[in-house]
Amino acid sequence: MLINPVDLLLWTFRRNENDVVKLYDALSPIMEVSTGGDMLNFGFWDETTLHPVDAQKRLCEMMSDMAQISSAEIIADVGSGILGPAKIWNSQYPSLQISSVNVNFSQLASVEPSNISKLNSTARMLPFSNSSLDRVIALESAQHFKPIGDFFSESNRVLKDDGILAIAIPTATENSNLSNLGILKFTWSSEHYSQKNIVNEISKNGFEIIESNEIGKNIYSPLAEYYLNNRDELQKKILSRYSKYVEKILFESMKKMQSASEKGLIGYSMLKCKKLALDSR
User: Fold this and answer.
1) Cβ 14 vs Cβ 189: under 8 Å
2) Are 99 and 93 in contact (CB under 8 A)?
3) Which of 118, 154, 178, 195 would you label with 244, given CA atoms 20 to 30 Å apart?
4) Which domains does the chain show, CATH number per domain?
């Protein structure tokens, strides 16, 4: 797959919805070909994790627990990718009604038909009626929603009064910039929201955070270590689809991601939020 470096820079700098779609169309197969799986998240790593797919499944299970999916009837997975997490949740809870929302039509079209509803829509205008959902989940996708407050506002609108919003989102410190992020400023193609910014937007849009976990130490460094330790094997897989410069950029980004995490420049938040009653806002 040939990727024009100029296009890559434009997608990264502008980061509108169309750019994000093109970026994922071009680069998400790297994760698929590298792992052999159908999930696009970084995964949660600990001393027992041997493979990226195991880490990705673990993060999906953590999100399921945080969102209390087991007690839900109808949920929306917003920014659903190619439905990897939704398939896991569907297999665990067959009666659960899952709507996978994705602005990227080609990703949805690539998934075989199933009993998971596929909705091609933006996170800024969720295609659900008021107070119709038990859960809204954004598993490593909300970092692309711009402005993120619109997503929180829409989530509040579509959730029932006892509904839960659960997100897992990469974050950056407020003083992160080109000089300290280096190549990540260009290759970490999201809005680089700070935790403070996210918390403020959640509060402004009628939610209370009832659980918050910072798990960056179990995300970035161990993922980078896996790549660095297995680069020869992964390089062969990546070069079967991409040019050498793409793999080189990925390699350098992994190293920088590890150092940025260890320096506290980037983090990863898992947040569970409940709607506030109208009279308490």
Assistant:
1) no
2) no
3) 178
4) 5-275 (3.40.50.150)
CB 268 within 8 A of CB 192: no
Please tell me the predicted confidence (pLDDT) of residue 165: 98
Stated pTM of the model: 0.90
Q: Give me 269's structure tokens.
A: 């938040």
Q: What angle do CA 106, 111, 116 make, to 5 degrees?
A: 115
Q: Which residues on neighbouring strands pair with residue 133, listed in sequence order? A: 159
The single-letter code of the amino acid at 132 is S
Cβ neighbors of 61 (< 8 A, separation 6 or more) are: 88
Strands across the sheet containing 207-214: 117-120, 97-102, 74-78, 133-139, 159-172, 266-275, 207-214
For residue 114, pLDDT beyond 90? no
pLDDT at 119: 96
- Is the pLDDT at 152 greater than 80, yes or no? yes
Residue 48 contacts by C-beta under 8 Å, 6 or more apart in sequence? none
Distance CA 84, CA 105 (A): 16
Residues 6+ apart with CB under 8 A from 251: 227, 231
Q: How many residues does the chain have?
A: 281
Q: Which residues of 126-159 are buried (b: 16+ CB within 10 A; e: fewer)?
A: bebeeeebbbbbbbbbbbbbbebbbbbbbbbbbb
pLDDT at 20 over 80: no
For the chain, the average pLDDT equals 88
Q: What average pLDDT does this structure show over 189-208?
A: 92
Three-class secondary structure of residue 163 per DSSP: strand
